[in-house]
Amino acid sequence: MTTSTPSANIANGSTYQPGKVRNRVLWTLQIVLGLFFIIASGGPKLVIPNTLMENPPENLTIPIGLLIFIGVVEVAGGIGLLVPRLSGLAAAGLSVLTVLAAATQAFIADKPAMAIFPLVLAAIFAWIAYERRATITSLLR
Hints:
Layout: H1 6-11, H2 20-47, H3 49-54, H4 64-82, H5 87-108, H6 116-131, H7 133-140
Helix pairs in contact: 2-4, 4-5, 5-6
């Protein structure tokens, strides 16, 4: 009787697939974070950008075009997290986006304490991207 483990699959040249429980945890995170980025983060930047521009946070004003671009990227990343073939790539992109958001909070807005949440999100997205790396490599083929 032969059993196949994730490390054995990698050694044989097959693609890595997370276990059943890990897969459920990943999908739960992907759904929750995907909906968060679509509805609560990116959506308002696209639906009411002028209101957001009128009430900017202290020490941080950005052009409306950049605000809309960030909204598009966040909504696209949120949708990508919900699509199985795009989930790894979307998580990698959102990881980069949240690192940039943390850097903006820490260095431009001069509020380093506000950078903690985006850095936690970046770590979660990096983990999702790592676990979904098979989807990234399949897109590259």
